[in-house]
Amino acid sequence: MGLKDALTGVFLFGGLALGTSTFSPARPPAIPLAVKAPYLNTWLNAGSDGGNGGYLAGQWPVLWTQQITAWTGMIRVDGDTYQWMGAVSDSQNVDQTEFSYTSTRSNFVMNVGGKVEMNITFLSPVTPTDLKRQSLTFSYLDVGVHSLDGAKHDVQLYADVSGEWASGDLNAILEWDYGTSNGVAYHQFYRQSQTEISEANELPNWGNFYWSTGNTAGLTYQSGSDVDVRGTFKSNGSLPNTKDTNFRAVNDDWPVFGFAKDLGSVSSKSVNTLFTIGITQDDAIQLLGQGDGLTTYHSLWTDYFKSDLDAVTFFYNDYKTAAGLATRLDNKIASDSIAAAGQDYATITTLAVRQVFGALQFTGTAKDPVVFLKEISSNSDIQTVDVIFPAIPLLLYTNPNLLNYLLKPLFLNQENGHYPNTNAIHDLGTFPLAKGYPDGTDEPQPLEECGNMIIMVLAYYQRTKDTAYLKQHYSILTQWAGYLIDESLIPADQISTDDFAGSLANQTNLAIKGIIGLRAMADISKITGHANDSSMYLNISTSYIKQWQTLGINSEANPPHTTLSYGNESSHGLLYNLYSNSLLGFGYDFVPKYVYDMQSNFYPTVALEYCVPLDTRHTYSKTDWQLWSAAIASEETRNDIISRIANWVSVTPTNRAFTDLYDCVTGDYPPGIQFTARPVQGGLFALLALKS
Description:
Layout: E1 9-13, E2 16-24, E3 30-37, E4 40-45, E5 62-63, E6 71-77, E7 80-85, E8 95-101, E9 105-112, E10 116-123, H1 131-134, E11 138-147, E12 153-162, E13 174-181, E14 184-191, E15 199-200, E16 203-204, E17 208-214, E18 219-225, H2 226-236, E19 255-266, E20 271-280, E21 283-288, E22 294-298, H3 308-317, H4 319-341, H5 343-357, E23 360-364, E24 369-373, H6 385-398, H7 401-415, E25 433-434, H8 446-464, H9 467-472, H10 474-487, H11 508-527, H12 531-551, E26 553-554, E27 561-562, H13 579-583, H14 593-606, E28 620-622, H15 623-631, H16 635-651, E29 661-663, H17 686-691
Parallel strand pairs: 2-8, 21-25
Antiparallel strand pairs: 1-2, 3-4, 4-5, 6-7, 6-12, 8-9, 9-10, 10-11, 11-20, 12-19, 13-14, 14-17, 15-16, 17-20, 18-19, 21-22, 23-24, 26-27, 28-29
Helix pairs in contact: 4-5, 5-16, 6-7, 6-8, 7-8, 8-10, 8-11, 10-11, 11-12, 14-16, 15-16
């Protein structure tokens, strides 16, 4: 099967035809199902590297790590049982006819034996300005069923989740319970032995998972082994309302938690059943910040709700409001993206939203929220500065205050004397333990992070006018600016954010980041009343940018372009750090227009099938940096870059959550590197951040 054949066609899996489905606006590499937080991050693999083409039935959903998070759906119609989600053996699959996605939803349409149609929606709400709702680490599954052939049909619906959601250690013993509260029926399951602020294979060793539905007439439930519970529904169309009391390991007879709902006689009017899945944790993160020891940060939802069940039932009963808010955001992002650069742009922006917010852990209190970020898949660092930095376009577009909440832990750690180096720190440790680096042994990206921090601080101020924030952090900002004065014009041999590409001296793109950082410091100084400092930073940055044009541009090339490193005339790379000059509004007054035009004219001459390479060392590229470059290019170049990425999204063989790093020739992962579900995809909003 060719790459594009998977977009529309019959897909075979396990010998069973899964039907013919369309995919709109694209068939993603992986489809987000329940993606709301680092520990609620379940996907359906689609790409041919290991996915089944984007069909919900016939394949198990997985955590981004590829650990199965079994989620099963079955339906009985007039006594015949079909599978609509999961990969239970010896099952007859429904025929998937449509798939579509928005910023917050993944929608499937299924034909069940020509008798009824199912409309299945996975909604992971994103409410950037409503922290009460955003703090809840839950996701919705809404299943609607209606008659296709005009006749009435006897229908029963089934769904379960397995204990695999609750532990990265499949040998860990689980406990579980069943109950009802405020109109909601729920299965609760959790590790018997809990260790807070620790993980096993990227899943938490503490917290409670809740799988819920409405406590209404016709509902039955059961917990037990996967074979028993699913087999009971297949045979009877209902469950016996029993709880398995043999608490055991995740992989010991695979305990699952099932619901069955008798929908009765279904006609042309849709009958909908709502489910929710999520996790509650009272304590979420530990940070070395104020004082000499670690401070424990509570999950933000605990400031709004008195108990787990208050949160669980609020979320379930809030569906109508949550769905309305989601639709509003979906429509805004789609319309803004299309207005900015057409449907191809909307195809990629809308795929990124849940992924970015799914890497964020909201903690603190309503009056003092603190957001922590997990660098998913690359190394699970917490609060990585050069991962926050590429994500800022989406944050600035949706709620600039989120940037303040993300930078707060970094300032708390460094301003309280827990980092000995004069440059800005790279990260704060490994999620969920932000213990920092009191010995200064973080990954060395000194120029990168000093520039990033100063640029982000000014970007936040420009959108909030929070002068007190600049004054509060002025001392450490001047410390980092001092490092840029010493190091930015002629960068030493070091790594940048693209650390996988290797270390290099005299990096042209890295230098301009530091220089723009100094120009930003001039504005910060002026705003905070430090006129002499402002003049100094402005004079130095102006001098540096003039020298940079001589050092970093190959003006003799045809067409001319910046080099990867000073003096290497045969080299080139994406000059994505130029974007900050436009984001901060410095424009052509600081970096001349000809530099923008030169790069814009150059990129199409080196573009390959699926992207413009990051630089001359490799044929791979990154989606975030391509969009940063495209956002400040001519309309023709911008659209060319965007169309290559949008086309790649539809045809790539990569099968995991929207990678930001792929080969421009093959469309596949670079050898040995599989970036997955990373929040840097917020950089795809580069155009919209400029317009906002």
